[in-house]
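User: Round two. Same drill as before: sequence, then structure, for each protein.

Assistant: Same drill it is. First protein:
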Amino acid sequence: MKKIVVLFLLLSIYANAQLGKSMFTKDPIINLENFDKQRVYWGYFLGFSTFDFKTDFKTNPAPNKLIDVKGHSGFNVGLVGVLRLHEYIELRFEPGLYYASRTLTYSEFTNERDAVREVKATYIDFPLILKFSSLRTGNVRPYLLGGLSSTLNLSSNSKSKDDNLEQKFRVKPWTQNYTVGFGVDLYFEYFKFSPSIRGVFGLKDELIRDVDPNSPWTGNIQSMKTRAVLINFTFH
């Protein structure tokens, strides 16, 4: 994930440097001067993400019964529809496809079959986002964003009758999240490029418990909620 953040920063610095050539001259060239006056416009995004779980326990687990959750980098792609509500406020619908993977390691076990669970996910996300933009300076316009989403996990295993005894880690198919983030609009000659960093926070417990209420995999878990960092590159 650190490499992705560094890539994001390098791309932003490069884009700012390129735009700066036209911004800080005596007569700066303003690209797409009337772009943000559109009532409705469209775009798409590509990006990277890292998903993990925030785990709460019923009782504090012993040191030998902890759960380590490791998130792996995934890939995002989706569409963007924008409705301008105000000069500085937009309502955005950004349906997207997210590929994610987590590795759960249970310290209670010594054999890999019981200790490790690979939790892969294919999410279809349906977010409504409010974007709050600052004043535009030349070809740069920073912004903040926040919103809510419903997410369908196509890899949830929710219909499986097997559980962790058969190496099936199950989560609910639908979840709800809230998102907060920041980014910057960069106006080029023919398009607007908007890199952003976002945090995603699950609102509800996603775990489906094992049949055995005392299961060593799920018995002591109060809730497991999604946590994610997204880096999106949006083009309009």
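Second protein:
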Amino acid sequence: MFDSPDEIIDLCNPIDNDIPVWPSFPPIDLKHESLAARDGFTMEKVTMRTHTATHIDSPRHFIPEGRTLDEFPISKFMGEGIVLDMTDVGNSAAIDVDDIDRYGDDIQSGDVVMLNTGWDQYYGTTDEWMFEFPHLSGEASEYLADRGAKAIGIDTPSVGGWYGEVPGHGPSTDVHPADSHLPLLENDVIPIEELRNLDAVRGDAATRRAYFFYPPLNFQDTSGSSVRAFAFL
């Protein structure tokens, strides 16, 4: 018999027509195609990018010949890990090696490392959420890959900062997204982006261990997928 977890914490943002998406993406289109009252059954159609809402990246996201999600075993998308308190990093800050290394003794090889910046408090079509979020420096990504991390999660839109241009906002960082992503993806470290509730996992401690799940749909030949992420305590 398996023991049930003491607590299960949902780590996902919702998916509906009103959610924020990456500023250069079109909005989600979720609509009813059939209604039970009219057609005898209800069914919806969803149109959105694979890197939308709480999602993971595969190496193919930045590496032309990189592995796609279906090339990993399902075990790649779950594992024991740790939440780290990053709530003291600032607006648009690049999380650096020193920010993570203060917890270096607590990080184990093979861990799913979750970075709790607290940025989910700004979730929505806000400047903070869409453009001014903390993200990884290239050196921090290299450090985490060298430590043997299995996956890196963050409660912001991306492990890489906003580097683009839209009419309402220019770049918020000088760290190119490839600098944040490539050290992870080149080492098959899976980024998990747009998480929430990592503070509920961490509680009052600076770090806390848990078992994390972030499985994608069984898409073939894709660079990413929305996921149903949660933590067992």
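The chain has six helices and 13 strands.

User: Perfect.
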